[in-house]
Design a protein that fits this description.
With 165 residues, the protein is mainly alpha-helical. The chain has helices spanning 2-30, 36-85, 88-102, 110-124, 130-152, 159-164.
Length: 165
C-alpha cells in the first residue's frame, strides 16, 4: 500500500517538475535569468501557474460530469415515482426532460441520454411487473450514486494521475 503512495507521489512530483522546468526555459527566452534566485523563483512560479491551470481545468471537467450524473439521478427518481404512482403528469415531466436534452437545451453525454431513452421506454412497457421495474430503477440509482461519489474522488491537481489511474 505504501509503495502505491510513493509511486503516486513520484509521478506527481515528476509531472510538476518537468512542466515547471519547461516554464523556466520558456520564460528565459522572454527575460534572461541572471541569478540562481531568479531561476528558483521562476520554477516555483511555474509550479503555481501549472497548479492553477490544472485546478481550473479539472474542476470544470469534474463539475460538468457530476452535473450530468445528477441530472440522470433526478431522472431516475422521476421514473421511480412514475412506476409507483402511474400519474400522467409525472410521465409528461419525464418526456419533457428527454425532449429538452434532445433539443440541446441541456448538455448531457450521449451515454446518459441513451440510458434516459431506454428508461423512458422501460417504464411504460408492460412486460415487467411494477416491483421489478422499481427494483431495476433502484439498482440503477445505486450505480449512479456510486459513479457520482467516484467523480468526487478523482485527482484534481494532476493530469497524469487523473488519466493513468
Amino acid at each position: 500500500m505504501k509503495s502505491k503512495y510513493v509511486k503516486q507521489f513520484l509521478v506527481y512530483f515528476m509531472e510538476v517538475t518537468i512542466i515547471s522546468f519547461f516554464f523556466v526555459i520558456g520564460t528565459n527566452y522572454i527575460t534572461r535569468i541572471e541569478t540562481y534566485y531568479e531561476a528558483i523563483e521562476r520554477f516555483f512560479t511555474g509550479v503555481v501557474f501549472y497548479q492553477g491551470l490544472i485546478f481550473m481545468f479539472n474542476k470544470n471537467t469534474l463539475d460538468t460530469e457530476k452535473d450530468m450524473i445528477l441530472a440522470l439521478k433526478t431522472y431516475l427518481e422521476l421514473c421511480k415515482l412514475y412506476v409507483e404512482f402511474k400519474e400522467k403528469f409525472i410521465l409528461d415531466t419525464i418526456n419533457d426532460k428527454v425532449s429538452e436534452i434532445e433539443n440541446k437545451e441541456v448538455f448531457i453525454k450521449s451515454k446518459y441520454l441513451n440510458i434516459m431513452k431506454d428508461l423512458q421506454e422501460f417504464i411504460i412497457s408492460d412486460y415487467l411487473s411494477s416491483n421489478e421495474k422499481k427494483a431495476r430503477i433502484e439498482m440503477e440509482l445505486i450505480n449512479i450514486e456510486h459513479i457520482y461519489e467516484e467523480e468526487s474522488l478523482k485527482w484534481k491537481y494532476t493530469l497524469l494521475l487523473k488519466y493513468l489511474k
